[in-house]
Amino acid sequence: MEEREKRKIIAEEKHKEWVQKKNKQERKEREQKINKEMEEKAAKKQEKEYLQEKAKEKYQEWLKKKNAEEYEKKKREKEKEKQRQAELLEKKEIAERKFKEWLENAKNKPRPAAKSYGYSSGKLTGFYNGNCYPEPAFYNPIPWKPIHIPPSKEVKDLPGKKSKRPMASQPHRSSVLAIHKARGNLGLGTLCRIQR
């Protein structure tokens, strides 16, 4: 019985030791796990901060480059505007100089004698009239001649009958085109065929 009691006590002590050892091991593992998680979080945070810093630097570089480009663009535009203003001023000065030269030369040129007559409806009026057209500067020396149109086949004589009168004297209907303007619309005219 004593031996059994001793064994029981020893077993209980061993069991207690084992439980304590197990608890200690579990606590250690838990602490290691927490430490690992903390380290991972810290590493992630550090990486995130590094990436943000890099992005900030890149943005600053891009902004600097963009501002430099804008400055260069404005500078070029100012130079172009300055050049355009200079060209306009130069053109203006040349035009004024030419005008003054023309004005000086125009004083010395002989003036043509004023015409004391005018033309109205193609006829000389014989007196000066401001409402009449001036004398034509050019006229066509070759007079207008009508275009010869051969007689149509309808007008020719029939094969069985012979006419004593020549072809030109025979009456035939000819049509003439005339332009009629409507009273309401003076700009547009209508073409109609007048039979005679």
TrEMBL record:
This is Coiled-coil domain-containing protein. Residues 26-50 have a biased composition (Basic and acidic residues). Residues 18-50, 152-176 are annotated as: Disordered. It comes from Jaculus jaculus. Pfam families: CCDC34. Residues 2-144 form the Coiled-coil domain. The gene is Ccdc34.
